[in-house]
Amino acid sequence: MFRAPLYYLLLLHIGFxxxxxxxxxxxxxxxxxxxxxxxxxxxxxxGHIHPALCRAANGDLLAVYNENGGGGKELLLSRSTDGGxxxxxxxxxxxIKDCSIxxxxxxxxxSGEIVLHWSCYRVEDKRRWxxxxxxxxxxxxxTWSPVTEIPMEDLTNYTCLxxxxxxxxxxxxxxxxxxxxxxxxxxxxxxxxxxxGRNHGMVPLVQTTRGxxxxxxxxxxxxxxxxxxxxxxxxxxxxxxxxxxxxxxNLPYFGVAGYDLTALKNGNLVLTSILYGVGRDDxxxxxxxxxxxxxxxxxxxxxxxxxxxxxxxxxxxxxxxxQIDEHTLGTLFYDLDPQQTGGPGVFFVRTPFVAFQPMQKN
Length: 362
Prior knowledge:
The protein is mainly β. It has a single domain (44-352), classed as Neuraminidase (6 Propeller), CATH 2.120.10. It has one helix spanning 3-33, and strands at residues 39-43, 52-55, 61-65, 76-80, 91-92, 101-108, 114-124, 127-137, 148-149, 166-167, 172-176, 181-185, 190-193, 205-207, 213-215, 236-238, 246-247, 260-263, 269-276, 283-291, 304-307, 320-323, 328-335, 345-352. A four-stranded antiparallel β-sheet has the order 1-24-23-22, with no helix packed on it. The protein has a four-stranded antiparallel β-sheet with strand order 2-3-4-5, with no helix packed on it. A hairpin with a 5-residue loop joins strand 18 and strand 19. It is globular, with a radius of gyration of 23 Å. The chain starts with a helix and ends in a 10-residue tail after the last strand.
């Protein structure tokens, strides 16, 4: 009477278990070679959520965003200590006060210090302008310095940025504001012209490991506010610290939320772009593309779509990408669709570098 159970156990062991193990291994292999499902960082309400992202010197990932945009009164910070798999409950950054906030960016300097930028809305009668401010952290985002206001004349409603600063050295940071591109001198708390003096606009500016500057400027010089397109260059490249630039002519349509550029430790670049609907301005998906030659060409054949909900992405998303480690990229964005599970939120997707390799056929 005990032979039947033993018989079936043997069948399970020699017949069914290999299939089960093979299926589990296949699922595990897929997880290691494709972007992860979106991981919810936090729940938000509406408006200019506009998240910022950086990797701290200790490996933590920091996400900063508005819970309710259009002049939110605080910026919330959430932290991940495991590469973006889990995120802490967001907390307001205490040093920001008396400010109707337009979110900015996070930058980790070479020293490990973190710079958080944003702009404050100001209104006086019919005049509207924004005041750029920042604070810093020397302990990986645990505590923050008092607020510093960047002193500039003729502030406009377009004196704001959405991308990380470009660190020239410990004292000089390039700030790509919408209405001007300037160098901020930290020691003297002053600003000066950058490179050849052109305005790149509110675009990403990065430096490769070889020292080449890549600008996401869609035009040779950005008008403010954006009007009829002028001299289109679809990206710029400089090998002389911004004194002269050559057109890339290979970056995609910039759109309202633009795109992101990330310089990798191995010398490559990552373009985080938005795929738009045909004949309409809606954002439908986010895509990552690598450049192996400092932006001169892009490996579009092996681009990876990291988020495609099958509907317009509500709120424009503003995706931001950082390198987590030698194996993985992480992209932060938001989606305000009220019908999605959990409602409007900020999300994070992990993308392994192997996802950019051509699929091997058996």
